[in-house]
Amino acid sequence: MENRKKLVLVGNGMAGVWMLEHLLKLAPQKYDITIFGAEPHPNYNRILLSSVLAGGADMNDIIINDLDWYREQGIELYTGDAVTAIDTQQKQVHSASGKQVAYDELILATGSSAFILPVAGADKDGVIGFRDIKDCETMMDTAKQYKKAAVIGGGLLGLEAARGLLNLGMDVTVIHINEHLMDRQLDRPAGLMLQQELEQQGMNFLLGKRTVELTGKRRVTGVRFTDGTAIDADLVVMAVGIRPNVELAATSGLRVNRGIVVDDYMRTNVPGISAVGECAEHRGIGYGLVAPLYEQGTVLAKRLAGIDTPPYEGSVTSTKLKVSGVDVFSAGEFQDSADTRALRMQDDIDGIYKKLVIRDGRLIGAVLFGDTSDGAPLFSLIKSGESVQGREKELLTGQPAGGGATASPLQRLEAMADDEIVCGCNGVSKGAIGEAVIGKGCNTMKSLKACTKASASCGGCAPVVEGLLQFYAGDNAGVAVKEGICGCTSLDRDEIVSEIKRMGLKTVKETMNVLGWSEPEGCSKCRPALNYYLGMLWPGEYEDEKESRFTNERYHANIQKDGTYSVVPRIYGGVTSPTDLKKIADVAEKYNVPLVKFTGGQRLDLLGVRKEDLPHIWEELDMPSGHAYGKTLRTVKTCVGDTFCRFGTKDAMGMGIQLEKAFERMDAPAKVKLAVSGCPRNCAESGIKDVGIVALDGAWELYVGGNGGVKIRAGELLCTVKTDEEVMEWTSAFLQYYREQARWNERTAAWIERVGLAHVQEVLADSDTRAALVARLQNTLSYTSDPWQNIIQNDELRKNFTDLNDSAALAGTSPSAP
Ligand SMILES: Cc1cc2nc3c(=O)[nH]c(=O)nc-3n(C[C@H](O)[C@H](O)[C@H](O)COP(=O)(O)OP(=O)(O)OC[C@H]3O[C@@H](n4cnc5c(N)ncnc54)[C@H](O)[C@@H]3O)c2cc1C
Ligand SMILES: NC(=O)c1ccc[n+]([C@@H]2O[C@H](COP(=O)([O-])OP(=O)(O)OC[C@H]3O[C@@H](n4cnc5c(N)ncnc54)[C@H](O)[C@@H]3O)[C@@H](O)[C@H]2O)c1
Ligand code: SF4
Ligand code: FES
Q: Record's superkingdom (predicted)?
């Protein structure tokens, strides 16, 4: 150990420790390391303080390296002890607690401090910046006692602080000096759209205001502006930018401007002393985001390890607003000037704005509002500096020139270049994720994060990283995506299903016991999932556990927002009769049903029914349940087909009724909707159903995986068949395969995206497999019966509808579109 050099790091924050981690990987034995940190904590993720304040994370969740890590690395760590002087002659640092430590290499990573406006009253109690754990705790404590918060500064930090304070129940006013928010990241249209969104969330704004004084005695009570106006405030958070911590360097004789001046290898003007992070100023620029600081850290780590490295030449930055739930992205030069051209697209109805700034045929900046999914590829183009001439409009619309379909998420992942940066904070490319998943077997988000650092900082890239994890794991047969289905178990869906089968587990309780659930009672995520898997695996044998079902399924009715229920009788294929209509009208009148409405699935919905009336209504209706509440077949929508329509080529109504009669009461991982149209005009909207059938001249087309809900998805063509019998066979086989393979609560659209249509087609192409699937579905359906008939004929079950304090059901309902 004696010939190791001594390395001292001043500042136990994000940039310094990130650099050290890198150095330890490159040259684990080269240095004896000592770290001084002014804060009393191990290294934590400062970025996530916004999430902690907003209630989305716990302080424990944001520790990056715990104390064990320092011990394991042999690092001497002094927390809560600031370095106060550097003796550059003796090569020693002195700390506030009186320690003296010698160095061969000294790294200054002292970060920044929140800039506190030098206005009268800025030293009063209740006036803080938002920089560290202490500030965060002060805000959380203040919200318990006080009501009114003022945030000065409508930049990234101010808006994230304001969102957190709103979540803590405070009235929040953001005071901003400019006429639009985030003026350092957004142009005016995007700034105004952001303001509108945040106002709807309950934030108040005072724009164009310059603070002149903070009023109050010891504690702040208000904010006064240069125009003479004022507001009350019990808490004032200053978020008007940052100032690099340079005092230590300046008083020790290092060259300092706004930050500590460094060259392209992060060297200061004093031999043996480097600076990295927010405290450093490189080519006149100080950065306030982690991505460029990590780029600096990479160069410094290599130099300290003695490895050749290209110089650090500065960074192009991109930002995203966190925690507000509003999608905002900004990168590069976002303001246009005399030598730039800008392309803009604004959609006020959907709240989407996109601006691209181009100079000399190259993309140099972008602003996205409302939909930031193009952020990563646009940022890659900005960084690469490649020509986009002729492709500008394509980049703006996201569609290939000359039209064509918008790519699906999977296609988009596939189309990404290997060197495209996926995680901006940590500089992780698509290729690096592929390498980690396939090459190193990192097949969970946790291990992938540990392996690559992707999504370990702001978390903004997590959806894309997760998509790539699925993408690569799916592509590589040897790797399975392993995510526990909930916090009670580390087992994923496939493992649970195969263990239930292998060990013959027959109840929810037994499954949880045998498979080592951490929560003996399970949770609202795993209980209904296990109930479904057991019912799917052991039809006829497994007794449904009604306490594992949500309220809607438990009462066989959709609970409405006023606590009443709805009744939807089954109307096969949407075809009814005067007799049924009369029955429906009679019960609606008799039970004072406040609303009778046609649903999107061509059914009649009686809304506003009292729980105790449900059994009587169903008794008097004497019609089968429409299952408008469950994870089952909901409806088969039909058009009139060739029975009446002059374009019709086949009997769409007849086919719809046949399908609905065949699959009614079929439990499924999620709700299932079907449609049959008599010709490609598609009046029954077959293109957006789980199974959508379209008649052609002499054939039927079967589309699968469509969805018209939150995330619209067009169905994909599974097959084209000739006869009605084949329609029944393929639909049965498809539905049973979905029942057996999908995760609980996964709609066919999500399932198909996950496993790929080609896989489903390959499985179903085999006629023996189809026959076996059809037989298994028929077997399952043979055990089902109408739930309302069961209830009205059973006095015990009827009692549930008069006992108003039935608390055994799982809290929550599932959405109820029939
Ligand atoms: C609430 C919040 C949200 C943010 N969100 C994002 C985001 O989403 N994306 C993004 O890219 N960036 C974000 N940032 C910025 C990001 O956190 C910083 O860029 C990053 O932490 C800077 O790292 P650093 O190591 O240079 O400084 P720091 O993380 O501040 O670390 C410096 C450390 O040095 C210590 N120190 C200072 N002087 C001394 C001394 N003399 N002796 C010993 N120790 C000393 C300080 O106490 C501090 O602990 C956010 C910042 C905040 C406050
Ligand atoms: N999501 C993220 O990436 C994120 C989140 C939080 C913080 N940060 C980083 O933390 C640092 C601090 O953030 P910030 O928002 O304080 O800095 P900022 O410089 O981005 O924004 C400060 C804002 O305050 C306004 N301002 C300046 N003087 C004012 C005054 N007297 N009254 C009212 N408004 C005034 C400015 O116009 C500016 O919009 C930055 O480096 C930022 O990049 C990033
Ligand atoms: S889908 Fe075709 S057959 Fe059906 S109603 Fe429309 S036009 Fe007529
Ligand atoms: S982009 Fe911030 S963690 Fe990946």
A: Bacteria
Say how many Å lie between the CA of residue 681 and the centre of ligand 3: 6
ipTM score for this prediction? 0.92
Whole-number Å distance, alpha carbon 136 to ligand 1 midpoint, is 14
Ligand 1 binding pocket (C-beta < 6 A) is 10-16, 36-39, 46-47, 49-50, 82-83, 109-111, 130-131, 157, 245, 248, 277-278, 288-291, 293, 322, 425, 458
722 φ/ψ angles, rounded to the nearest 5 degrees: -95, -45
Atom 11 of ligand 1, residue of closest alpha carbon: 289
Q: Where are the beta strands (DSSP E) in 529-644?
A: 558-559, 565-567, 595-598, 604-609, 633-638
Residue 347 has pLDDT above 90, yes or no: no
The DSSP result for 684-748, as a single string, is T-GGGSSEEEEEETTEEEEEES-B-SSS-B--EEEEEESSHHHHHHHHHHHHHHHHHHSPTT--H
| Residues 19, 82 within the same domain | yes
**Closest ligand 3 atom to Cα of 645:** 8
**Poorest-pLDDT segment among 103-117, 336-350, 394-408, 649-663:** 394-408
DSSP bridge partners of 273? 106
Q: Which of 221, 240, 259 is the last residue of a domain?
A: 240
- The tokens describing 603, both together, are 């059914």
CA of 460, closest atom in ligand 2: 1
Q: How far is the CA of 112 from the centre of ligand 1 (A)?
A: 6
**Nearest CA-CA partner of 301 in 63, 91, 107, 83:** 107
Q: Does ligand 4 come within 6 angstroms of the Cβ of 45?
A: no
Interior angle at CA 284, CA 279 and CA 290, nearest 5: 45
pLDDT category of residue 790 using cuts at 50, 70 and 90:
confident
Distance 524 CA to ligand 4 centre (A): 30
Measured from the CA of 319, which atom of ligand 2 is nearest?
Answer: 3
User: Does ligand 3 come within 6 angstroms of the Cβ of 677?
Assistant: yes
Tokens 């006692």 locate to: 145
Whether 425 is in the pocket of ligand 4, judged by its Cβ within 6 Å, is yes
Give 633's strand partners. Answer: 672
User: How many domains does one find in the chain?
Assistant: 5
Bigger pLDDT: 17 vs 513: 17
Q: Which ligand is nearest to the CA of 320?
A: 2
Strands (E), 405-506: 421-423, 428-429
Regarding the beta carbon of 457 and ligand 4, being less than 6 Å apart is answered yes
Measured in degrees and rounded to the nearest 5, phi and psi for residue 343 equal: -115, 135
Which of 112, 156, 207, 423 has most ligand 2 atoms within 8 Å of CB, for mutation?
A: 156
Q: How many CB atoms lie within 10 A of CB 516?
A: 10
Query: Is residue 480 predicted with pLDDT exceeding 50?
Result: no
DSSP conformation letters of 319-386: EE--SSS--EEEEE--S--TT-EEEEEEETTTTEEEEEEEETTEEEEEEEES--TTHHHHHHHHHHT-
pTM: 0.65
Dist. CA 713–CA 405, nearest whole Å: 12
Q: Determine if ligand 4 sits within 6 Å of the CB of residue 459.
A: yes
Are the C-beta atoms of 473 and 335 separated by less than 8 Å? Answer: no
Boundary (domain end) residue, out of 240, 261, 287: 240
Dihedral angle computed from the Cα positions of residues 510, 512, 515 and 519, in that order, rounded to the nearest 10 degrees: -150
Question: pLDDT, tens digit, for every residue of 61-89?
Answer: 889 999 999 999 999 999 999 999 999 99
Q: Where in the sequence is the domain holding 287, given as residue range(s)?
A: 5-111+244-305
Q: Are 679 and 633 in the same domain?
A: yes
Does residue 423 fall inside a structural domain? no
Within-domain flag for 72:
yes
Task: Dump the DSSP string for 27-86.
Answer: -TTSEEEEEEESSSSS-B-GGGHHHHHTTSS-GGGGBSS-HHHHHHTT-EEEET--EEEE
Distance (angstroms) between ligand 1 centre and the Cα of 295 equals 15
